[in-house]
Amino acid sequence: MVGRGGKGGARTRRGRSAHTADAVVRRSRNPPRDPPCGSPNSRRSCSYRHGHSATLTTATRSTREREPMSEPSAGSAAEHRAGGATDALGLGRDIAAGGVDPVEHCADSLERADAPEARHAFITRTPRRARDEAAASRRRHRDGAAHGPLDGVPIAVKDLFDVAGTPTTAGSATLRDAAPATTDATIVANAAAAGMVCVGKTNLSEFAYSGLGLNATFGTPPNPHTPGGIPGGSSSGSAVAVATGVAPCALGTDTSGSVRVPATFCGLVGFRPSTSRLDQTGVYPLAPTLDSVGPLTRTVPDAAALDAVLRGRVPTPVRPPEPAELDVLVPEGVLTEDLDDEVRRRFEAALERLERGGARIRYGRVPAVEAVPPLFRDHGTLVAAEAHRTHAATVRGADADRIDPRILHRLRQGEAVLRDSYDLLLRRRAELRREANALLGTTVLVYPTVPATAPERALVEADPVSYARVNARVLRNTMVGSFLDLPSLTLPAGGSGAGRTVGVSVSGPTGADDRVLAAAAAVESVLAR
User: Fold this and answer.
1) What pLDDT, on a 0 to 100 scale, did the predictor assign at position 67?
2) What local confidence, expressed as pLDDT, does residue 508 receive?
3) pLDDT attached to residue 317
4) Run of H or E including 84
5) How far from chain centre, in Å, is Cα 73?
6) Using CA atoms, how far apart are residues 302 and 308, in angstroms rounded to an integer?
């Protein structure tokens, strides 16, 4: 069993009493437009913003602050193949060493985007931009002026981010004909400043408002690990683009689990930073209080490197702690109860491997975590309230019938939550976040990212009731971390499971993103052995 300590307090894996978790755990130009795939050029604009200035910083790469990143751990690098490594840092090293030409690799990436296994992964391709950026990278490397370890590495971008010259559709038919953006979102501009090559904008659940990854307008990408299974959402296309080798990394957004769920179902690493960590100027909102943006990658070091780049910093290596230095708490209760058998088996096997690797593992209930599901049950969710507010005009307007009925129903449900419970939810969130941060200290939580393996697509499409039930289940654990603003990284649990993948999450207190990345690198180094 996952839970070992009962209600009396945290216990070590061998049953020795430890500190009680319930009490203390201290420890502008207009470039040529690349239209949406299969879509006509558009002239209708979409109006949205967070209220941030659209002005982008144009500091040169040499003036940007250097940021630590994790060194690749033993066994964590992805397999190599013709055309370079499949992990971002490995590919960057191959390019820097002259073994891979960024222009040729870009052409290979664009070709792979047309492969059957990547169908529906992209809404808009950006071949002209990609070729120009790859050619510029080739010149920099030739001249010894590379912009960092990811110069020349392809990246895919979720279609919630402004990319100059392309529309931002948010995966919705209502925005399919949106006018092209005139500037990049800040973090897209930061990736470009690091020399990365944007190959296109990826598919998603409509308005990023589902954890399943279905899209009735642009198609649903296939799950590369589970034939017939859903890819997870909302960042479905980003996950599939990485899992199928179109790009070694991608950008996603995560409001309730939209990076972590598809990363789990597609066998990847996905990082949800603290909400304030990255500049969200030029990102289409869903629920601004909860919205976060983060990378999907093949390895934890790649996630750490991309996290630095997206903040406008140059990644620099930093070693993860030894496993014996980790203070791991497995939260008993909602995050580890009612798991699918395969998830439970693989999670417990991962804990056994961590213990054998030297990690100290304790078990105990975390009151702030346990308080969240009853709050949602009694008052509704914060994401429902803010999603309704974000899309109220569309829901009430002439375009409402162009929205997927399942998404439209969820958006309308949020009206009552916004009216009756919004202030209470904000107040309780602030209280519970303070409580969780004080309790965790230097401890990291380790738990299953999703309590189920990827459900069959036919099941979730059978009827609206099944859709709602499965959506709530796959988002169960990730929604708790989002509500408490816990920076969280999911990585593959390892082991075999007939192609179905299971994720393990590492979470810490708000603002402890660097510690979470380092701890996750240590966990990965053990699980990859």
Assistant:
1) 47
2) 99
3) 78
4) strand 84-85
5) 21
6) 10
Q: Please tell me the distance from the alpha carbon of residue 214 to that of residue 192, in angstroms, as a whole number.
A: 29
Q: Which of 70, 73, 238, 258 is catalytic?
A: 258
The answer for residues whose C-beta is within 8 angstroms of residue 390's C-beta and 6 or more apart is 48, 285, 286, 287, 288
pLDDT of 81 reads 39
Retrieve residue 353's tokens.
Answer: 């491997």
Q: Which helix (H) or strand (E) holds 490?
A: strand 488-492
| CA 386 – CA 412 distance, rounded (Å) | 11
Conformational region of residue 375, where left means phi above 0, alpha means psi within -120 to 50, and beta covers everything else = alpha
Token pair, residue 352, equals: 């056994």
- Residue given tokens 């870009």 in the structure block: 106
Determine the pLDDT at residue 3.
Answer: 56
pTM value surpassing 0.90: no
Tokens of 416: 């009552």
Active site residue 235: no
**Looking at residue 496, what is its pLDDT?**
60
Asked about 158 being catalytic, the answer comes back as yes
Catalytic, out of 42, 76, 158, 235: 158
The predicted structure's pLDDT at residue 99: 97
Domain(s) of CATH 3.90.1300.10: residues in the chain: 1-27+321-380+421-529, 85-317
- The amino acid at 143: D
Helices then strands, each counted (H, E), the chain: 16, 16
At how many degrees (to 10) do helices 422-440 and 367-379 cross?
170
| Residue partners of 473: CB distance under 8 A and separation at least 6 | 451, 452
CATH of 85-317, one of 2.30.130.10, 1.10.10.10, 3.30.300.30, 3.90.1300.10: 3.90.1300.10
| Separation CA 276–CA 278 (nearest Å) | 6
Residue range 1-27+321-380+421-529 in CATH 3.30.70.1350: no
Q: 3-class DSSP state for residue 289?
A: coil
Cβ atoms of 212 and 467 within 8 Å: the answer is yes
Cα-Cα end-to-end distance for the chain: 24
Q: Pick the catalytic residue: 137, 234, 421, 525?
A: 234
Ramachandran sector of residue 449 (left: φ over 0; alpha: ψ -120 to 50; beta: rest): alpha
Under-50 pLDDT residues of the chain: 4-9, 11-33, 35-82
Please report which residue ranges of 358-491 form alpha helices under DSSP H. Answer: 367-379, 382-396, 405-420, 422-440, 457-460, 464-474, 476-483
Gap between the Cα atoms of 505 and 271, Å rounded: 9
**Count of alpha carbons within 13 angstroms of residue 436, beta-carbon side:** 30
Contact 199, 130 (CB under 8 A): yes
Alpha-carbon span 310 to 325, nearest angstrom: 29
**9, 102, 154, 340 from 109: Cα distances, Å:** 51, 10, 8, 36
